[in-house]
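User: My instructor asked us to take a sequence, write out its structure as tokens, and then describe one feature of it. I'm not sure where to start. Here is the sequence I was given:
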Amino acid sequence: MKKIFLILLVAGTSMVKAQNTKPANVPLYQGVYFYADCEPADKTEYVGRVQLYIVWSNHPKAIKKAIVRKARRKFPEGNAIVWKTDDWGEAQVFKISEK
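Assistant: Let's start with the prediction itself. The structure tokens for your sequence are:
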């Protein structure tokens, strides 16, 4: 019984998928860094949250454009946006510290 439990434990831990923590190059989009389903690796300061109540299109490019436009108006000091695609109408705004 102990051997079966040990085999299942070892097999289960070997199947755990490792997360990719490699840094990526994020291009500027309308003057801000736009992170979709990821987080900045640099030191950041939370600035605020933007929320879209009405979105005329469900196309990701249109939503991205609307989020950036609203974030730049509401938080001009922010230079990075983190958007989780499971919550289409909401994004977090950050200020990335200069190196």
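For the description part of your assignment, you could build on this observation: The first helix runs from residue 2 to 14. Try explaining in your own words what that tells you about the chain.
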